[in-house]
Amino acid sequence: KRVAILISGGGSNMLRLLDSMAGDHPARPVLVGSNDPAASGLAKAAAQGVPTVAIDHRAFASRTEFEAALLEPLLAAEPDIICLAGFMRILTPDFTRRFAGRMLNIHPSLLPKYPGLHTHARAIEAGDAEAGATVHEVTADLDAGPILGQARVPVLPGETPDTLAARVLVQEHRLYPEVLRRFAAGDRKPVLL
Ligand code: GRF
């Protein structure tokens, strides 16, 4: 399976996905794209020999025009699967529909709790005993598609959003590669770490 990965920043999840596909694996990376030309993950992907593309969303007057520009190199790579990994742009229903059933995203909360932003602060504020990350299929509704995997961490006394984010990110790096491996092999059974 051909995998395209979209990032917006450092791309730590993208790197773990690349590492996981290096050996015997049902998928291989064909493109790493970003909406930000300054995303430091782009150079890391290029250093591993993966083709990259940056489409600066600020250069477009509308979401639709940005997506049309992104679609060109994305479709040219002929991906079977798209992984959003720290990709911080909301995609239109037209875009998500085009990749229905084969676009994944990792979100730093135990969905359906805390879709959207500031997930760790919200979990701490709510006094939750647990937090974590979710990999889900991307649909038109933000952070709401079928869940493919979750990883849980305890919320510790004196937790701050930063300390929680750091521990959740470690679990993201375990979860996303495992979900992608199974998804690429046609296994949709949720991974629960
Ligand atoms: C992190 O907050 C992670 O929880 C979320 O996106 C952000 C950046 O991730 N998935 P990455 O290091 O760019 O993969």
Features of the shown structure:
binds 5-O-phosphono-beta-D-ribofuranosylamine, 8 strands, alpha/beta, eight-stranded mixed β-sheet, globular, 193 residues
What does this entry look like structurally?
There is one protein chain. 35% of the residues lie in helices and 22% in strands. An 8-stranded mixed sheet has the order 3-2-1-4-5-6-7-8, sandwiched between helices. Helix 1 (12-20) packs parallel to helix 6 (161-184) and helix 5 crosses helix 6 (161-184). It has helices spanning 12-20, 40-47, 63-76, 93-98, 119-125, 161-184; strands at residues 2-7, 28-34, 52-54, 81-84, 103-107, 130-137, 147-154, 191-192. 39% of the residues are buried. It is of the alpha/beta class and 193 residues long. Bound molecules: 5-O-phosphono-beta-D-ribofuranosylamine (GRF). 5-O-phosphono-beta-D-ribofuranosylamine binds next to helix 1 and helix 6.
Topology:
Layout: E1 2-7, H1 12-20, E2 28-34, H2 40-47, E3 52-54, H3 63-76, E4 81-84, H4 93-98, E5 103-107, H5 119-125, E6 130-137, E7 147-154, H6 161-184, E8 191-192
Parallel strand pairs: 1-2, 1-4, 2-3, 4-5, 7-8
Antiparallel strand pairs: 5-6, 6-7
Report the span from N to C terminus: 24 Å
Count of helical regions: 6
Gyration radius over CA? 16 Å
Main sheet specs: 8 strands, mixed
Count the strands?
Answer: 8
Which ligands occur here?
5-O-phosphono-beta-D-ribofuranosylamine
Helix content: 25-40%
What is the typical, i.e. mean, pLDDT? 97
GO molecular function, one term: phosphoribosylglycinamide formyltransferase activity
Catalytic activity: N(1)-(5-phospho-beta-D-ribosyl)glycinamide + (6R)-10-formyltetrahydrofolate = N(2)-formyl-N(1)-(5-phospho-beta-D-ribosyl)glycinamide + (6S)-5,6,7,8-tetrahydrofolate + H(+)
Protein name: Phosphoribosylglycinamide formyltransferase
Family: Belongs to the GART family.
